[in-house]
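FORM 12-B: Structure-to-Sequence Request
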């Protein structure tokens, strides 16, 4: 198992300095942002896709620091009802799928996206309940008319490139929990799987350890983000955990993202890492820093330090004791 970083948070450093920083901290991997919501802070992906010398330059710079590319990140909404946004995010996804093998990875991380509630909508419509019946009609439209046709096509394209699409199950998008992720995979194809980010599951009441078990059993545990969440016991008891207040309003929110170890300790992270191993995941834990109480540098470095203590890196030995 390797320790890495979702590189969007280091974008302000520039490519070379970000790689130096990763090497300094003893990381193994970097997840490169290449468009949509994470942006493209390090290079222009379409230019790199057309240029073997640029591809080699990037690979050489990464290898010189003892790192690998763990994934390309292109989290977006390619089924957005605004066609301009949809086309931009779809283009970013398509470029990432073609570019990934050329940079040495077979994983592209994305969101499922969320369409409008009908073909006439201009904004996404995330459905969270089954009544009144309008909402079931919205779900039928979103899944049958938009999501399944779109991702069936993208599954085939990914298969042609030897690439896996790892969905980050995220509230606000149609794939937000294990059930919806597996539903889309079953309908569209086996190149679609999970980027398991425990932070989004905690506040939904989902046990990420059990999610890892489910994804592992389904053979679709493609990637893992390392990010934590803390639930405020008072605010959540009063208002529940559906919370649209600013992430900066930490004192009044029901939950906030935290640096690994500050939302949950060894009682979660050690069983989580162990379950990943049980289910055969030997990829990267990619740290994504979004802690409102810490600077990027301090939060990220604390996450690195903490996760080094709970990760299992060597192959298991023989059971010599019997």
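FORM 12-B RESPONSE
SEQUENCE OUT:
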């Amino acid at each position: 198992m390797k320790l890495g970083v979702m590189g969007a948070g280091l974008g302000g450093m520039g490519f070379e300095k970000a790689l130096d920083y990763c090497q300094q901290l003893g990381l193994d991997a970097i997840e490169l942002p290449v468009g949509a919501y994470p942006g493209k802070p390090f290079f222009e992906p379409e230019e790199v896709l057309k240029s073997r010398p640029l591809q080699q330059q990037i690979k050489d710079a990464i290898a010189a620091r003892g790192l690998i590319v763990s994934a390309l990140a292109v989290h977006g909404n390619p089924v957005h009802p605004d066609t301009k946004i949809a086309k931009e995010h779809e283009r970013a996804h398509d470029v990432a799928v073609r570019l990934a093998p050329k940079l040495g990875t077979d994983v592209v991380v994305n969101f499922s996206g969320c369409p409008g509630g009908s073909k006439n909508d201009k904004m996404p419509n995330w459905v969270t309940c089954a009544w009144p019946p309008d909402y079931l009609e919205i779900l039928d439209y979103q899944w049958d008319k938009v999501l399944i046709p779109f991702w069936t096509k993208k599954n085939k394209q990914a298969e042609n490139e030897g690439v896996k699409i790892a969905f980050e199950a995220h509230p606000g998008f149609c794939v937000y929990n294990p059930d919806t992720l597996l539903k889309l995979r079953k309908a569209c194809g086996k190149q679609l799987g999970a980027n398991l980010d425990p932070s989004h599951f905690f506040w939904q009441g989902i046990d990420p350890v059990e999610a890892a078990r489910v994804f592992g059993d389904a053979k679709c545990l493609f990637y893992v983000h390392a990010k934590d969440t803390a639930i405020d016991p008072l605010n959540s008891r009063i208002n529940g955990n559906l919370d649209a207040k600013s992430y900066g309003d930490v004192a009044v929110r029901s939950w906030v993202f935290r640096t690994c170890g500050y939302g949950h300790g060894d009682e979660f992270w050690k069983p989580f890492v162990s379950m990943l191993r049980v289910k055969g995941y030997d990829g990267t834990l990619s740290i994504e820093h979004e802690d409102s109480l810490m600077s990027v540098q301090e939060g990220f470095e604390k996450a690195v330090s903490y996760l080094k203590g709970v990760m299992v890196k060597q192959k298991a030995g023989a059971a010599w004791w019997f």
